[in-house]
Amino acid sequence: MASNRKMLVLGGDGIGPEVVKEVLRVVDWMAKKRSVSFDLQEGLVGGAAYDKHGTPLTDETLADAVDSDAVLFGAVGGTQYDDLPFEVKPERGLLRLRKEMDLFANLRPAMVFDAMADASSLKRDLVSGLDIMILRELTGGVYFGQPRGIDDLPDGTKKGYDTQVYTTPEIERIGRVAFDLARKRDGRVTSVEKANVMMSGVLWREVMTNLHKAEGEGVVLDHMYADNCAMQLVRNPKQFDVIVTDNLFGDILSDCAAMLTGSLGMLPSASLGAVDEVTGKRHALYEPVHGSAPDIAGKGIANPIAEMLSFAMALRYSFDMGEEADMLEQAIQNVLKSGLRTADIMQDGMARVSTTVMTDSLLKELDKLVSG
Ligand SMILES: NC(=O)C1=CN([C@@H]2O[C@H](COP(=O)(O)OP(=O)(O)OC[C@H]3O[C@@H](n4cnc5c(N)ncnc54)[C@H](O)[C@@H]3O)[C@@H](O)[C@H]2O)C=CC1
Ligand SMILES: CC(C)CC(=O)C(=O)O
Ligand SMILES: [Mg+2]
To answer: For residue 16, how far is its CA from the centre of ligand 1 (angstroms)?
Structure first.
């Protein structure tokens, strides 16, 4: 059934298609049990697109992504692509999507479900009830800065280099998102950089400080160096509310935060563009924080929860379906409470289940929630 909820599904590589497939079962459930349908289109990205088209992202798929209300993304990459030229590696497909859709704001919430407080790398009291938001700038910094390359040097050795660049408008726009998020949460923003050693960090701190003076009403801002932030995240994560940081630090700190929640398989994300003033819409792509996990791909053991929670974020941010998002999150909470665990979050006394069985149980919990 066609609907105006256009969602482009890009499973990608490795466990990407495996976890996306599980979300599509929830999409089916919503059509059957809630009469909510999505206009789904599927496409190739990453190594899968390279294998078929010789590029990790075709112009047609990019156009479909731009035209959609939301992209549901799995993951890209794999060891079989290690020897490809840099510009056609699977990861370039995702980076191009982020850049060309101008998805500058990457929201990576790290929340500890009640049933998971003992699965964390930290002691229960340090993480129980944890709810922090890592806001990662996604279209600038060293992932895109020029020049970069590998040059031959006269002495026969080589020089590899990348460039970290941030401009005032780039920092301001992510700073505004941080303040907006904080106002809906606990009102605290920690801006993270390395202003002690990087000029881009000096500018970042200066711009955030000025923005806070001009537009930061109701928000408490503090600054922290990225290395200290990594340590503080595992020392006392509850000190944070919103962490706003650049592309590279955000990538690293969010993988670190994953272990507070129990596993990388638990962490969702939303990559959002600016809201169009005329249509009120924005480009959006929903992706788990994890990658294609080649070490477990094809074994049927990947944790689908990060992808499920990413879809919940799509329901909330792109489809104005907060009730369904809450329901999906509640169902996940209930499944975890019932003691089911995929291998990555396995604990003593719990029952180990496959990717598919985890979703079977999730669907049963959704059934229970709608039947009252
Ligand atoms: N957004 C994306 O598409 C990303 C892609 N990558 C790519 O993925 C490939 C593998 O990268 P890695 O560094 O190994 O990172 P990874 O995130 O794929 O895996 C790291 C570890 O976490 C585990 N893991 C990840 N997701 C899991 C899940 N849902 N359930 C259970 N266990 C899970 C893996 O088994 C592995 O041991 C590389 O090609 C990398 O470039 C990496 C990160 C993000
Ligand atoms: C392009 C991705 C492979 C980089 C990454 O690790 C991420 O965005 O989380
Ligand atoms: Mg990453």
So the answer is: 9
Q: Which residues contact 336 (CB under 8 A, 6 or more apart)?
A: 113, 115, 116
pLDDT digits (tens, 9 = 90+) for 302-343: 999 999 999 999 999 999 999 999 999 999 999 999 999 999
In CATH, what class is 1-104+271-372? Answer: alpha beta
Residues of the chain with CATH 3.40.718.10: 1-104+271-372, 121-261
Element (H, E) at 189: strand 188-193
Distance between CA atoms of 209 and 50, rounded to whole angstroms? Answer: 44
List Cβ neighbours of 296 (8 Å cut-off, separation of 6 or more).
15, 302, 343
Q: What is the interface pTM, i.e. ipTM, of the complex?
A: 0.99
Q: List pLDDT tens digits, range 236-255.
A: 999 999 999 999 999 999 99
Q: Which atom of ligand 1 is nearest to the CA of 16?
A: 3
- Residue 303 among known ligand-binding residues: yes
81 labelled binding-site residue: yes
Domain 121-261's class?
alpha beta
Pick the ligand that lies closest to the CA of residue 288: 1
161 in catalytic set: no
Residues surrounding ion ligand 3 at CB below 5 Å: 251
Task: Please provide the DSSP assignment of 194-210 as one string.
Answer: -TTT-HHHHHHHHHHHH
- pLDDT at position 2 over 60: no
Handedness of CA 145, 197, 255, 267 (dihedral sign): negative
Question: CA 351 to CA 335: how far, in whole Å?
Answer: 11
Q: Against a cut of 0.95, is the pTM above it?
A: yes
User: Can you tell me the distance from the alpha carbon of 287 to that of 11, in angstroms, rounded to the nearest whole number?
Assistant: 10
Residue-level pLDDT at 1:
43
